[in-house]
Write a structure and sequence with these properties.
homodimer; alpha/beta; about 45% helix; elongated
Chain lengths: ~900, ~900
Amino acid sequence: MAKKARSPKMVYYFGKTKTEGGGKHKELLGGKGANLAEMTSIGLPVPPGFTITTEVCDLYYQNKRKLPKELMTSVKKSIATLEKELGKKFGDLKDPLLISVRSGAAISMPGMMNTILNLGLNDKSVQGLADATGKKRFAYDAYRRLINMYGDVVCGVDHKYFEEAFDKIKQKYRVKDDNDVPVEGMAQLCESYKKVYRRHFGKPFPQDPMGQLELAIEAVFRSWMQSRAVKYRQVENITGLLGTAVNVQSMVFGNMGEESGTGVAFTRDPATGQNKFYGEFLINAQGEDVVAGIRTPQPVEKLAKWNKQIYGQLLAIKDKLEAHYRDVQDIEFTIEHGKLFMLQTRNGKRTGAAAVKIACDMVKEKLITEKEAVARIPAGDLTQLLLPSFSPKAKATAKSSGKLLTVGLPASPGAAVGKLAFSASEAVERTSKGESVLLVRKETNPEDIDGMHSAAGILTSTGGMTSHAAVVARGWGRCCVAGAGNIEIHEKARKIKIGGKTFTHQDTLSLDGSTGEVMAGEITTQHPKLSGDFSKVMQWADKYRKLDVRTNADTPADAKRAREFGAQGIGLCRTEHMFFEGERIMAMREMILAGNEEDRKAALKKLLPVQRKDFTGIFTAMKGLPVTIRLLDPPLHEFLPHDERSQAEMASRLGVKRSEVKARVSALHEMNPMLGHRGCRLAVTYPEILTMQVTAITEAVIACKKKKIAAIAEIMIPLVGTATELQLLSEQVREVIAEVKAAKKVTGKLDILVGTMIEIPRAALTADEVGQYADFFSFGTNDLTQMTFGYSRDDINTFLPDYLAKEILLRDPFQSLDVTGVGQLVRMGVEKGRSVKKKLKCGICGEHGGDPDSIRFCHEVGLNYVSCSPFRVPIARLAAAQAALASGK
Amino acid sequence: MAKKARSPKMVYYFGKTKTEGGGKHKELLGGKGANLAEMTSIGLPVPPGFTITTEVCDLYYQNKRKLPKELMTSVKKSIATLEKELGKKFGDLKDPLLISVRSGAAISMPGMMNTILNLGLNDKSVQGLADATGKKRFAYDAYRRLINMYGDVVCGVDHKYFEEAFDKIKQKYRVKDDNDVPVEGMAQLCESYKKVYRRHFGKPFPQDPMGQLELAIEAVFRSWMQSRAVKYRQVENITGLLGTAVNVQSMVFGNMGEESGTGVAFTRDPATGQNKFYGEFLINAQGEDVVAGIRTPQPVEKLAKWNKQIYGQLLAIKDKLEAHYRDVQDIEFTIEHGKLFMLQTRNGKRTGAAAVKIACDMVKEKLITEKEAVARIPAGDLTQLLLPSFSPKAKATAKSSGKLLTVGLPASPGAAVGKLAFSASEAVERTSKGESVLLVRKETNPEDIDGMHSAAGILTSTGGMTSHAAVVARGWGRCCVAGAGNIEIHEKARKIKIGGKTFTHQDTLSLDGSTGEVMAGEITTQHPKLSGDFSKVMQWADKYRKLDVRTNADTPADAKRAREFGAQGIGLCRTEHMFFEGERIMAMREMILAGNEEDRKAALKKLLPVQRKDFTGIFTAMKGLPVTIRLLDPPLHEFLPHDERSQAEMASRLGVKRSEVKARVSALHEMNPMLGHRGCRLAVTYPEILTMQVTAITEAVIACKKKKIAAIAEIMIPLVGTATELQLLSEQVREVIAEVKAAKKVTGKLDILVGTMIEIPRAALTADEVGQYADFFSFGTNDLTQMTFGYSRDDINTFLPDYLAKEILLRDPFQSLDVTGVGQLVRMGVEKGRSVKKKLKCGICGEHGGDPDSIRFCHEVGLNYVSCSPFRVPIARLAAAQAALASGK
């Protein structure tokens, strides 16, 4: 780590007196701190305060979790400035200055970091606050919240003990709702809370405000490394941050009565992108109440009725913020006694659809340029636009037959179908076993991150559009229905009740995240139709990108869909799937069982016409676009049945002894099939398989040619590790092509290239030799990753979770290309290949071809194309454009 | 391939008229041709002739197996020269010039290529020859040999048909031996042979001598690519040759009567190296009769009695040749009517022991220098010196109890014990199943190469010390007893009879290749004592080599033996084997079965003292030399029983349910264990295993220190693929060391380094990152080869034979390091590692560490040491010296 200069500036003030930071200091002050300073600078009403830098957090960890000595001196100076500006004293017994302590890293992590409000209160000043505000109940409510949050966050006292104490008070006063507890109950509650605190923490609740502050600062820093924060950074792939900043800000209160309130809002609709002020507020409440989703808030438009002036002021601020930040803002505000305060602004998270619409609108509004629009849409989020929705007909039928159970808030769009899971761990476990599940929770919290990530959809019974569940789900494009208040959740019994009907963990529901509808049973889903804005963004992307985008498709139907999504060819057409259909598998098995070349050839003869038909279909669908066909790749044992019954069936079908089938299966067993007899190794030992496939391809090309269909074939030889393999096999391929041409009396040139997959480390290392025999390279980064890391994809889950948790790996290398290691081989492969063939066509056909980060790398190393699943083609087009714009080449 | 100038010189003459080539033209004229020219030049009596170059062979294959047009013109010119020199006409009907046609590549391949003798005879000239020599029987014998060889070699008529015809003639004359067939029988035989030829080839035997010659030349070229020749080149790793030359030489006849004869000899004893003329001869025979081992010849010394002058002439030639070639020569000679002719000379193949003795003797004799001596001994052949022999006591006991069955010729030294195999394919098959077998054959032929290579030893009932079996076996250092004439072999019945006793394929025999003894049952073998010459060669080697040589050893006994062989440390001490002994495996299984860290720790606690004892033993054996200890590497399932019975046993021993054991075994099952949860991945998920092992190592070092034993430990973390893994684990290792030191109150520095194995491609690619946390690198080239090629060592046999046969691979990459691919990663690993740590210690601990070719590469890339099995340490020392001498650095 770079050495830090001694005593950097640790605290940045914002307020009328002075504002030391600004929007450009996100790394140092965190997003929240930088924006508080920025808002202050542009004249918005922000309660003054100061920010302790992320560098201090880093020092704290470098210093074995101790705050730097000088810190509190700076903090005290800033507190003094604050006191002067507001005319109140921190720790004053009569009219105390209260503060909040909030975390805030450079990248927003909603709900991840701990917050403490009302800091500065103690047994004496709570009385002063009551006197000064004339609101005793408010004062004790503030104090009990402080004790609760402080106990929980700073001292690790479980929140449930406080809840129990609260329940007792409520029982005592026979009330159900928190707000119905009378003033004296609140005062008693403070006493109970202090006892809870003392019993579980071992010391009395601290009465010294500055001591409270110091420990609170430390608690924020500590929370940076707690497991849920670490996990969130993993999931979101957030790395390279120094730590969190700490924002200390003077309190304003939305819970001072009916003229007070609090709210959160987006400057545009984050779900659809529509340009309208969008949000929620609660009267007489603190901000945490909205975010936590405990009470169900009102839409922000209703503010107009409640306080027209404030609403107008907010609309003006909305415009000012958008013009200033040139992006959608997600704001928090509080109204104290009819006075508006801004507590936060940040770029608003939005769905993929919203991102597209907002970008297009902002270009129209001349707020941003076309290039900025392209650069700004998170490519991965396009998934959401391409997500299935329910078939309207199927849905209408379902609804008319009484399947609609309830309507919650449309928190995150999409359609999800699954069985019910009642805890995050259950969702993770059942998903890993292949089930599609919906995570059902009263409300979600950061501990649920895992389960939310694995579930097909999320359903909550409380909480609004900006609740934890909603924000997180939208960020991931996960379908979510929130605040479905009609649902009674019985977690332990693993069932829910809706309108008298009961559903258990065995039952399937369907969620519509775009309407909030919750329906019984499984409703058919359909592919989305894409909007005009989407097309526009794709056009812009195509204008700027340098990489071609192809697709991985094995059937004419997939090929057609991919073409509609803009695929410029097929980068990987696997032929093995073709052998599983109907009768083909029997011919394949006959071939495998054959004891000699002659019998193998006889069996292959049966496969030739069906293969030819397959290829003709695909060439027809991709007319005029190249189709890369990979020759047979998997080990032969994959085509044989492994259970007794199927083996017996196969034996009787083929008229051989069971023992013969069994013997062959056992002979084909391998210790490490990944590294065994497959890929081009099959073609070396059974050249007749290659001959059959190449014959089928060539005949299909010729058949298309006769029908005036421009078939362009690229024959790809898989798993090549040595130049001699490719030399031998490419010669064989070319000979077969020549023979078929001669047999069919075709004289003109056919559009057939012969190339190879680079998926074995040795092939990349010797690409200058291999390249001599290849018309093209296609990097098979799945296998390349397996061999470069020595990770079996099928077995990696035995250790990957530990590797991610210990940050040995920051991401699953099968999801995002390991640029440092595997990428080195890709780069070497391209450079060495082109050292012998300057214009060698290079592409990638591993699953990384649809991952935006990996696509950036592909652009950088100068590949000609990426290939990915049909569904990810638009993502790849956009990511390719972003890569080109970012690199400037 | 480089373009050839048009019409190169195709034919090189040797004789009194002119001699166009010489010893330096081996590449062009083949070894035989170059030496014939060379011998002619230095005045030895060589029958004149000419050599067609290897370039012509290459042209033949380039030209789709057609002889270049210009060839026969040149051949005819040379024939004319020959006719002039000898005063005879080729094809003359009265006194025809007869010639031999022999193959000869740059590298000698005994028995591999086809030979045709007596070429130029036809129905008419055979009579002329009879008249000219006055030996009708001789003339018809020569003709029938021509028809037989020509039919077999040129036209593919199976030899057995000729044998059948011969048998009929012998039956007709009621004789047993070929030589007893009378003259008229021989003439009839020629007629029968011509019929056989015509029946099986479809055309009559050609009567035009020049036509015979042209087809014979082509047959020699053709034989270059026949499978047994290809196979021999594979086994011997002979690559890069253009092809074979063709030697056309005037015939001389050793079968002209009792004053004629033929022989083969070595200028020194090729088995022991003793400086005495060594060989065999047959009176009235052709050269092929000696080599083929059909008749049992007499020792060459007996020539002195038979013809003292000739013997004296031969001894003079022996000295002249050794002085000229400065090496042992293997010669063929023929005596025609009391006149000596030299037919061949070449460097003599010798056993490892002979190579050592000859090299030392020649240094003493000032024939060669010390460096030449070191460079000349094939390092791999030292194996033979280190081969076990029979324990004299066990052998004496066996012999005194009547186990000695017979004594054959001591054809190739060593001791071999095995069951009997009666065909090459049987030997290959049973060996591959793990049996030790002896290949028993009447005589061996080139088709048996495979079986000879896999058998533990070879036993033949006919043939001499220079028979095919003997020559090939010595070349490989395979134990061989030849010409054991008392043995009756019943191939079909799979049994042999010796002196009334019968042994089947189920019975075990013991062969002593140094004495020729054949003994019943298994006799204990022992390790050899090394000669003074051996020590001298090792001293020379140590003087010139730059690489250190370490050993792979897991036990104090192995460590001790390796030290005796000159190992300078342990390069790989595997710890997993230590867990299989006795009670340990139960503790290990308990650990694996444990459901949590605490229980694992409890089980590991039982292993700690035994591990400590293991290490103390090894440190004591290697006192003062470094010991590289690899932490636990294999996947845990390897420690669990996989059959029902053992699982039940384990369950009852550990007091758990069977189902629990079964469940754990099944949970640990992996699709590709090679790429699964093993190596340092175990340490990441179960840090307590690493802690136990490092504690044991550190405590052992401290215990040794207290006993004044200088223990030097190098802790090696296996299977590292990312720098972060090594960072995390090396920190843990260093912490454990510090804790143990603190607990034991040791303050001084301990000799413990912490390094890693580079065996995953990614580790080599990122060695500049990995190197930051390593004190040393050890290249694990076994796994590195597996992952770089994508070859599972356990499964490679499914395709390797085809890969070798098709020359996709020239050698098994697990036997000899693939310099092009895997070597690139090794080089990268060394260079990148040293870019961050200039003096980073680098070694190799894969099995390549004992392979001379791989050692040369290790020297070139600047490794500090190689490590190999104890047995191969001397080989590595010599190979390292040869590498240093060859590279001149």
